[in-house]
Design brief:
Blueprint lengths: L1 H4 L6 E5 L4 H12 L3 E6 L2 H8 L7 E4 L5 H15 L4 E4 L14 H29 L2 E6 L12 H21 L4 E8 L5 H9 L3 H8 L12 H8 L10 E4 L8
Parallel strand pairs: 1-2, 1-4, 2-3, 4-5, 5-6, 6-7
Length: about 250
């Protein structure tokens, strides 16, 4: 029973931004559970390195995640290659760290397009394939900034808060089609994105360690288990949730 609950054999998973960091950590977990994994992004060279860690069944598709037509093409290419789409991980994201008064309109729209609009467009494109298959799983990546604020992350926080509310609405809309939609809220995970944050935000490393009961930064590998759970039959009655994976960061005041 246990193995069946977490078995993804025969499933096809599409992971945006799956060529590194949290996305690659999740992609590895899905591949190890038996799924055929497609990673989507802009950097083909970086993707080739990631594909080498995912096994022979993995594939890459190019996408401009903030563009609705490109998201549709991404899904169409996936279903053409593999005949189905069962799992979508909306992981592609970015941040511009500035004080709110210093943002230009173009910077605001860029972060919004990638983090929030892109997640919606990808989910929207995936819906018909999942409905046709009799169900599916959408996993949206939020953030600690879905819960907390930070002076240097106003636009990022706005998008990640939006991701959680969008998750709840999609879960309600698509439950009759047996599509579960959930969000994961990573804590401070050691990735290229957060390494840059540590360079830009003085004292961040020490503050994260002081607040995290687990006493460490997370690694991309810490995201594999939640991805498998939310992509598998084990979570068929779980939808509309936002689950922190943060070493206890959000539990400590």
């Amino acid at each position: 029973m246990t193995s069946r609950l977490f078995d993804l054999t025969g499933r096809v998973a599409l992971v945006t931004g799956g060529n590194g960091g949290i996305g690659l950590g999740m992609a590895k977990g899905l591949a190890e559970a038996g799924a055929r994994v497609v990673i989507a992004g802009r950097d083909r060279a970086k993707a080739e390195t990631a594909l080498a860690t995912l096994g022979d069944g993995a594939s890459f598709v190019a996408v401009d995640i903030g563009d609705q037509g490109s998201c549709q093409a991404m899904v169409d290419e996936t279903t053409t290659r593999f005949g189905r789409l069962d799992i979508l991980v909306n992981n592609a994201g970015m941040s511009i760290r500035k004080q709110p008064q210093d943002f230009s309109e173009a910077e605001w729209r860029r972060v919004l397009d990638v983090n929030l609009s892109g997640s919606f467009f990808a989910a929207q494109a995936a819906y018909p394939a999942m409905k046709a298959a009799g169900g599916g799983k959408v996993i949206n990546i939020g953030s600690m900034m879905s819960i907390f604020g930070a002076s240097f992350a106003t636009v990022y926080a706005a998008t990640k808060g939006g991701v959680v509310q969008m998750t709840k609405a999609l879960a309600c809309a698509w439950a009759p089609d047996n599509i579960q939609v959930n969000a994961v809220l990573p804590g401070w995970i050691d990735t290229d994105l957060t390494r840059t944050a540590r360079q830009q935000v003085e004292g961040l490393h020490d503050r994260v360690l002081a607040r995290t009961p687990a006493g460490r930064w997370g690694g991309p590998e810490d995201m594999a288990g939640i991805a498998v759970f939310l992509a598998s039959p084990a979570s068929d009655f779980v939808t509309g949730t936002a689950i922190p994976v943060d070493g206890g960061y959000s539990s400590q005041g």
